[in-house]
Amino acid sequence: MHVRIPRTGLVTAMLLALSNMAQAEASIPVPTAQTQQQAEVATVASHDLAQFIQRTLEKGDAALAGGFPLNVRHVDELRGAKLGTGFPVFTIDARRLVGGENDLSAMATPTGSWRFMIVAGAQPIGMATVDKVGGHWQTVAFGAATLSQEVSANLAAHSATADGQFRFIRIYQAESDLLEFGAPGTKRPRYALLQSAQHALFPQREAEQAAPMHATQLMNQEDFIEPLRQAAQANMAPSHGSGR
User: Fold this and answer.
1) What CA–CA distances, in Å, run from 191 to 100, 104, 218, 223?
2) H, E, C per residue of 118-131
């Protein structure tokens, strides 16, 4: 579940603290221009997260009724919540995939959207989605609690083997999320198929899928590109939204 975030309010001590923590979390090496954009987007996400936390704390545990977007049982757990790793969202044009191109890494292009992990007590509890709206960065949703567990588990398991280099790739028409490990263009990347991709590409294995908090085994693109191509082709009618 996601919650839509309005733009409001004053900068508070909580805002400043979250902003500092967000910048400290930027541990994934990225090009300078992207690093600058990440810092700008992180400041916005910190601002909006702090305001969301403040509003939720004011309402108390009643705010958790009806499907709260973050994975907490009591609002007090939000007092220590902060931004974690941030990353741009990439996608692959299904027309190129279905058309026979075979290099997933080369086909991946940025969507312009960013995701930031939200952590509390060192545990992932959700994500913040930041898009450019009317020329300004804005947090458009909080949610994706299960996805945050998957991403966190796979980054912990695999980032060291790829020198910290990874990309989050969402192929909308195939309803599949992947984590690509390895620096694009420098060595052959490998991929972690998240639960959406496992379900879409290998439904017969669903009973064997790892729980979200556990990492999946890395795969070469040859191990799944044909099922990915078939899934994209089956859903080539209007593009699916980014609702997860």
Assistant:
1) 19, 10, 5, 10
2) EEECCEEEEEEEEE
- Tell me the C-alpha distance between 192 and 215, whole Å: 8
Q: How far apart are CA 68 and CA 74, in angstroms?
A: 10
Share of the chain above pLDDT 70, in %: 78
Rounded Cα distance between 84 and 62, Å, is: 26
Under DSSP, the state recorded for 214 is S
Q: What is the pTM of this model?
A: 0.81
Q: Which range, of 10-19, 96-105, 160-169, averages the lowest pLDDT? A: 10-19
Beta strand 136-143 with 123-133: parallel, antiparallel or unpaired?
antiparallel
Angle formed by the axes of helices 32-59 and 13-24, nearest 10°: 140
